Amino acid sequence: MPRILGIVTVGQAPRDDIASLFAAHAPAGTKVILRGALDGLSDGEIDALPPESGADTLYTRLRGGRDVKLSKKAVIERSPQALARLREDGCDVLVYACTGDFPSMPGDEGVLFPSRVLNGLATGLLPRGRLGLLVPLAEQIGKLSSKWARPGLEVVAEALAPSAGEGEARAAAGRLAAQKPDLVAMDCMSYTPTTKEWIKEPLGVPALLAITATGRVLREMLE
Question: 103, 114, 40, 42: which is closest to 77 by C-alpha?
């Protein structure tokens, strides 16, 4: 029987970019179902969920391609419903498609969180040294740098919107390269392989892309 992969995005379904990238890493014949924490909300209702602070800020792209900043607290409140619907869909494996650090939520047992994948890889590859971060919004730098901090590790960061073009991406990579990181983590699920391709040359060090790293782990879980 074909396996079923369930994906929760912090925004809205459909997100064909996320679904297709995960599908590319899944075993042949895997069915992919994606649901959003904000499904069923109008644009006005979504705009009424602004972040309360930098620590409460999430970035996502809505189904129409609009970039928005959201309250993390509001997304957490709505996520259990999306997870429950995917379990009702009969999904074999669930992934929560956001690199944020989330508390325990109802129904999150066995769910794969990309932040844990990315952090595990970075810890294994760089037990000590200087870690570079690319994050979507400048106001997230302080909070996300603290999230990654651990003994023996210095964290440096630059903001790069996932919707940015090649010129902006290369410029941000150049600024980050000037801080001489040993490894870079791209801390957002909306960064794409194209974004990674743009930043590789200016950085000159390995970069970890959340969506493809998570996709490879999901393949292990689905095979």
Answer: 103
